[in-house]
Design goal:
- The chain is mainly alpha-helical and 74 residues long.
- It has a domain at 1-32.
- The protein has helices spanning 29-32, 48-70, and strands at 5-7, 14-16.
- It has a two-stranded antiparallel ribbon.
- The relative contact order is 0.10.
Length: 74
């Protein structure tokens, strides 16, 4: 039984849709190849003052959310 002939949605080439073909069913094998992953951005180191400031901001945010969620409406 022959494989179905599909048309690639990117390059408009016809290809056989085989069961072991990697990638998407509507793209040809050359267009289905995975792209190279971008280089991960290294995290910059933070000093004590920056970490403490971020901690204080997050604590204030948590306190405000807690007050909004659990306050009793009178």
């Amino acid at each position: 039984m022959p494989f179905p002939i599909k048309t690639c949605v990117i390059c408009q080439e016809e290809f056989e849709l085989r069961p072991d073909k990697p990638g998407f069913a509507n793209r040809c094998p050359s267009c289905s190849e995975p792209e190279t992953a971008p280089e991960p951005v290294p995290r910059r180191s933070t000093d004590y003052a920056e970490r403490r400031a971020e901690h204080d901001v997050n604590a204030a945010r948590r306190r405000a959310m807690r007050d909004l969620l659990y306050r009793k409406d009178s």
